[in-house]
Design a protein that fits this description.
Layout lengths: L8 E4 L8 E3 L4 E3 L4 H7 L10 E3 L25 E2 L15 E5 L10 E4 L31 E2 L8 E5 L9
Parallel strand pairs: 6-7
Antiparallel strand pairs: 1-9, 2-9, 3-4, 5-8
Length: 170
Amino acid sequence: MSQPYVAEIRLFGFNFAPRGWALCNGQLLPVQQNQALFSLIGTTYGGNGVNNFQLPNLQGCAPMHRNNANPIGAFVGEENHTLALTELPAHNHLVNTVPTAGGQLSPAGNVLAAAATNATMYSAAGGAGLVPMAAQTVGMAGGNQPHSNQQPYLVLNACIALQGAFPSRN
């Protein structure tokens, strides 16, 4: 393997960081013992910049090239997401009925009947004295639970070089 640049990140298919490398798991390193690496990444990923600095944390993340909206070190996205009402696609919920003829005039505590026996069982929208129907007429949908928001992935170890050639800026 060729000599890496200090701060170079590579993926490895084994379960440890090789000598001269550290896992990209967000750990804090002392500045005094890692001055070359600190001079390149500073506190981009965290740390106080005096005693310590933090390595990038790629656990559960996919790396992305920087751009104007997302500078180096920006953490964007989430592993799990609970949809808000505004994120749901437009859709309909069917209204349930019982398969018998109706016999009640009021919707309060009742459900809709498949066949009406009295034309007065409905009221115009916005009418006075509206009351809720029984809960089983139109039920709740969804569980309000987060869902996985991750693309398909293959798990590998991301490691950052602690030692190696110092990269030239030109």
